[in-house]
């Protein structure tokens, strides 16, 4: 399959699913977190597919790998924020289980794509 667009990338598609999951989760956070932690979580989640898309459109392998690295960092940021939600008793392990699994999957996919690009 030839990749003509970032939309063809499975990792971008999974990252978009992650955004949807995070937007649903932040609705469960307390109102006093509306403009703090929940905002940061939304930004980190949106950053993942956004950086994948921007990097793929740059058409340079080196630039693409750099944007993928930023996306991977945003995944780690999001995982940390989910753990903060648990520590603060805003969400339960059960509530974040799917989002956490999605973060791990997207993170692995991004890392795999970086390795593939770097090996060329």
Question: How would you sum up this structure in a few lines?
Answer:
The protein has 120 residues and is mainly α. It has helices at 10-26, 37-58, 61-87, 93-118. Helix 1 runs antiparallel to helix 4 (93-118), helix 2 packs antiparallel against helix 3 and helix 3 (61-87) runs antiparallel to helix 4 (93-118).
Features:
4 helices, 120 residues, mainly alpha
Structural commentary:
- With 120 residues, the protein is mainly α.
- It has four helices and no strands.
- It has helices at residues 10-26, 37-58, 61-87, 93-118.
- Helix 1 packs antiparallel against helix 2, helix 1 (10-26) packs antiparallel against helix 4 (93-118) and helix 2 runs antiparallel to helix 3 (61-87).
- It is elongated.
- The two termini are 17 Å apart.
- The mean pLDDT is 95.
Question: Can you summarize the main beta sheet?
Answer: none
Helical proportion, percent range: over 70%
Radius of gyration: 15 Å
Task: Please give the count of helices.
Answer: 4
**Strands, total number:** 0
**Range of strand content:** under 5%
Structural class: mainly alpha
How are helices and strands ordered from N to C? HHHH
* Unreliable stretches covering 5 or more consecutive residues: none
What oligomeric arrangement do these chains adopt? single chain
Terminal residue distance: 17 Å
What best-fitting shape do the alpha-carbon axes yield? elongated
Average pLDDT for all residues = 95
